[in-house]
Amino acid sequence: MLKIRYSAELCGAGKTWWACRHIAEKAGRYLLVVDRRAVFSDRKNLISRFASEVGTFPKIVEIFSASDEWIGGRPDVRRAVREAGCEHASQKHVVVLLTHEALKSSDLSTYRDNWHCIIDEVPTLWTHSEVCSPVLGQLLEKTYNLEPILKEGWSALRVKADGPSLTDYYADTVLSGWGDIHRQIRDRDAFAKIGSWQDAASRSSWSLVSIWNPESLRAFSQVTLLGNAFEHTVTYKLLERHFGDVVKLEPFAVPTTRHVTWQPRKLLIRYFAKSHRAGSAFWATADGRECLRRIPWWVNAHTQRGAHYWSCNNSLYGSGQVMDGRRVSPKIAGENGLRNLTCGTFIYSAKPSQREREALSLFGISFDEVVRSREYEDLIQMLWRSSLRDAADTRSVEFRVYDQQQAELLLGFMAQAAPHVAVTLEQIDLGLDAFKPRKTGRPKKDLTVVEATAKKEREKLQAAERQRKRRQNRDADRDLDLRGDSGGQRGIDPPPFLAPSPGPSATPPPI
Fold first, then answer.
1. Angle between helices 15-25 and 40-54 in degrees, nearest 10
2. H or E element, residue 356
3. Whole-angstrom distance, CA of residue 199 vs CA of residue 364
4. Which residue of 52, 97, 263, 441 has the smallest Cβ count within 10 Å?
5. Quick check: 441 and 283 in contact, CB under 8 A?
6. Which residues of 280-318 are buried (b: 16+ CB within 10 A; e: fewer)?
7. Handedness of CA 160, 161, 164, 169 (dihedral sign)
8. How far apart are CA 8 and CA 2, in angstroms?
């Protein structure tokens, strides 16, 4: 059975600090896996610093994709990762540094000679795609076997021995884009929301889910994972529920010699909405866009630019500098460059779509568990990038989020992780509570030919009935049409702008 040791201690506990010091102090062969290329230099510098203190000289090898952004990338990362296990097997003290994605896509069987794998931050094990294949569906039947599972409408995907190979797909001018998906199906546990290949040949999209198999880590003599509140993540629950028969999760406390005294300070967490939650679907509506429009105006009127950092979903405000201060990526775990800043704004949502929820239910993962793992984890990481990371700093900090539930989650986190911080919640009333997402029904179901025909006939009858009623109630219908559909709700005007006075120099934008 594969044993994974993990530390789930909260942000600021010194997990990364311990890992880099451990690597520097104890000679050995290490694979250090981080969440993104941008933190390579930080990890490399930290290891080098500790190594100089204790008099060791580990060789540090960086493996990442070739790109215009980074110098020294490899044209074939998967090959480079595989070969590194053999190339450095004879060295007594070496560190191979790569990303989560490189780890999950590579053959790790070459790391058999006493390699220790340390995974910093929690990797995502599952991938969800929506596939529309009216043409490709005919080829898929020749490539994969469908094996129905207990969950209604779902099937496991298995690659046929005599089907096209991964090399064939990558070499194909038209179908090369399917190569990455084929590799996921080949190398992972894959499931499709189709009962037969005839379903895949329609113009309706279907869900495809693949789960990375952690058994690919078996070659390592030891596997260690470091992640904030790891037990609350989807990754932990998948390892426990889907791979519980082959993976043993073993918690451990990070040993640290870093003794610091955290100074008392204050944190003000402000939020804009109480009546509804942050959500990409709502923000795509007219009402949602109006809510988003109001926030930057208030932020810019109440923010000191030099002390402020902000972020959002990449699709919300485009690539422009909508708010004053430093714009950062919404994925920022491990970043130390913001620790001098005392104010942050994060307008963000990472809730699963209806199809994602249905897919994760295959493994007993609930909606709330996904939100806690994805959205709330990113909120915590964003908050903790500020000067709150500095134990000696006593300045007050302010952090803004979209809704009350997000603010309360951060309040609970701070009470557990940073009892030296006095936290206050406050709503900023910009009138957002007057807007509420419309309730939606069940997700659209893919229909068979018989069901589609029956539905069409039913809709014809319903349309005829509506016409009859309209003729009987023409006057009432005319009044209803005159009232229109403004403000996102029928017959209701947009709410007034309720922002507090920003001062004599700022004027609220028109509604």
1. 50
2. helix 354-360
3. 25
4. 441
5. no
6. eebbeeebbebbbebbbbbbbbbbeeebbbbbbbeebbe
7. positive
8. 19
Q: Which residues contact 422 (CB under 8 A, 6 or more apart)?
A: 264, 265, 266, 267
List the single range of 105-119, 336-350, 421-435, 449-463 with lowest mean pLDDT.
449-463
Query: 190 - beta bridge partners?
Result: 157, 210
Tokens of 102: 């490189």
Rounded CA separation 434/274 (Å): 10
Distance CA(357)–CA(365), nearest Å, equals 8
What is the rounded CA–CA span in Å between residue 407 and residue 33?
Answer: 31
The pLDDT, as a whole number, for residue 494 is 39
Half-sphere exposure of residue 172: CA atoms within 13 angstroms, side-chain side: 14
State how far the Cα of 475 lies from the Cα of 451, in Å rounded to an integer: 37
- What count of other Cβ atoms lies within 10 Å of the Cβ of residue 95? 25
Q: What percent of the chain is modeled with pLDDT above 90?
A: 55
Confidence of residue 11 (pLDDT cuts 50, 70, 90): confident
3-state secondary structure 223-255: EEEECCCHHHCHHHHHHHHCCCCCEEEEECCCC
Q: What is the pLDDT of residues 50-105, one digit of tens each?
A: 999 999 999 999 999 988 788 888 999 999 999 999 999 999 999 999 999 999 99
Whether 340 contacts 393, CB under 8 Å: no
- Tell the burial category of 90 from Cβ atoms under 10 Å away from its Cβ (0-12, 13-18, 19+): exposed
* pLDDT score of 477 more than 50: no
Number of other residues whose CB lies within 10 A of the CB of residue 123 = 20
Burial class (CB in 10 A: 0-12, 13-18, 19+), 183: middle
* Average pLDDT taken over every residue of the chain: 85
Q: Which residue has the tokens 């989650």?
A: 409
E strand or H helix at 145:
strand 144-148
Distance CA 216, CA 236 (A): 17
Of 481, 509, 480, 485, the C-alpha closest to 497 is: 509
Whether 287 has a pLDDT exceeding 70, the answer reads yes
What spatial distance separates the first Cα and last Cα of the chain, rounded to whole Å? 61
**Based on C-alpha coordinates, what's the Rg of the chain?**
27
Q: In this structure, what DSSP letter does residue 334 have?
A: T
Residue 373 CA, distance from chain mean position:
8
Determine contact, residues 499/298, Cβ cutoff 8 Å. Answer: yes
DSSP-based helix, strand, coil % in the chain, nearest 5: 40, 20, 40
The answer to whether 118 and 23 have CB atoms below 8 angstroms apart is: yes
pLDDT of res. 54: 96
Residue 228, pLDDT above cutoff 70: yes
